[in-house]
Write a structure and sequence with these properties.
Blueprint (H helix, E strand, L loop, with lengths): L1 H24 L6 H18 L2 E5 L12 E4 L6 H8 L4 E6 L8 H7 L3 E3 L8 H14 L2 E4 L17 H9 L3 E6 L2 H4 L8 E7 L13 H27 L1
Parallel strand pairs: 1-7, 2-5, 2-6, 3-4, 3-5
Antiparallel strand pairs: 6-7
C-alpha cells in the first residue's frame, strides 16, 4: 500500500514542479542548461519521496573523458529517477518523439534539449548516427543510454542492443559504464525507509581506432563490465544488510 501511495505522490509532485519550470524554460527552449538546472534536483526529490537513499561511488568518473557516452543497466521505471538524479551537467538522453504527446512531461523533456527520434528510426541506422553525432559534437554534449532497450525486471542484465555502440564508434566518443545495484536487493518501497541504491561509474572504454566490425565485441565487453560491477554492488548491499 505504501509503495503505491508513494508512486501517486511522486507523480503529483514531479509533474507540478515540471509545470512550474516550463514558464522559465520556454524563454530559452532546447538549452541543455535547462536540464542542468532542474533534472538532477527532480530526480533526487523523487527518490526522497520513495524513501530511497542513493550513494554514488567514484563520482568523479562522471566528470572525466567528457564528452562521452554513458551506458547503464535498465531495471524498472525507477531508473527514470536514478538516471535523472545522476545526470551530469552537459548531458542529454535519447527519447522517442512520441514523448512529446505526454502532457507536461513531453514539453519538459523537449525543452531540456534531449534528442528525439521517430519510432521507426533505428539507432544503428547511418542517418540516425550521423544526426546524433552532429548534435553531440556541435553542442559538446554527452549522452546517457540504456543499451538493454527494455527493463530487465529483476532478471539480470539483458543482452545489449548494438545501436549505442554504433554511435560510440561512429562518434569516436568513449563509453563510460555506470553500474546501478539491483533494486530487488537494494530496497523495499513498502518500508518507511526503503533502502539504498548504489551507483558507480567506471573507467571509460576507448573507442578510438575501432570500426563497425568491432560493434558486437564492444557491446559484449561493455555488458560483461556492467554485469561484474552490478554483482559487486549487490554484494556490498547484502553485506551492509547483514
Amino acid at each position: 500500500m505504501l509503495k503505491y501511495l508513494r508512486y501517486i505522490i511522486v507523480g503529483i509532485v514531479i509533474i507540478s514542479l515540471m509545470f512550474l519550470t516550463l514558464f522559465f524554460m520556454i524563454f530559452r527552449p532546447r538549452k541543455v542548461k535547462n536540464s542542468d538546472l532542474f533534472v538532477a534536483r527532480l530526480g533526487k526529490i523523487a527518490l526522497s519521496i520513495l524513501g530511497i537513499k542513493m550513494k554514488v561511488k567514484h563520482g568523479s568518473y562522471f566528470l572525466k573523458n567528457r564528452p562521452c557516452i554513458f551506458i547503464s543497466n535498465h531495471q524498472s521505471n525507477i531508473d527514470t529517477w536514478t538516471l535523472a538524479a545522476n545526470l551530469p551537467k552537459g548531458s542529454i538522453t535519447l527519447g522517442k518523439k512520441s514523448i512529446l504527446y505526454i502532457p507536461i512531461f513531453g514539453a519538459f523533456y523537449y525543452l531540456c534539449g534531449n534528442f528525439l527520434i521517430n519510432r521507426k528510426d533505428k539507432i544503428s541506422s547511418k542517418a540516425m548516427i550521423n544526426n546524433l553525432v552532429t548534435y553531440l559534437k556541435e553542442n559538446q554534449l554527452s549522452i546517457w543510454v540504456m543499451p538493454e532497450g527494455t527493463r530487465s525486471k529483476g532478471k539480470g542484465v539483458r543482452p545489449f542492443k548494438k545501436g549505442p555502440f554504433h554511435l560510440a564508434i561512429g562518434s569516436g566518443l568513449p563509453i563510460v559504464p555506470i553500474c546501478i545495484s539491483s533494486y530487488e536487493k537494494s530496497f523495499d518501497l513498502n518500508k518507511w525507509k526503503s533502502g539504498t541504491i548504489l551507483v558507480e561509474p567506471l573507467e571509460a572504454i576507448s573507442t578510438k581506432e575501432l570500426s563497425v566490425e568491432d560493434v558486437s565485441s564492444l557491446a559484449e565487453k561493455s555488458r560483461k563490465i556492467i554485469i561484474a560491477g552490478v554483482e559487486k554492488l549487490d554484494q556490498e548491499i547484502m553485506r551492509a544488510n547483514d
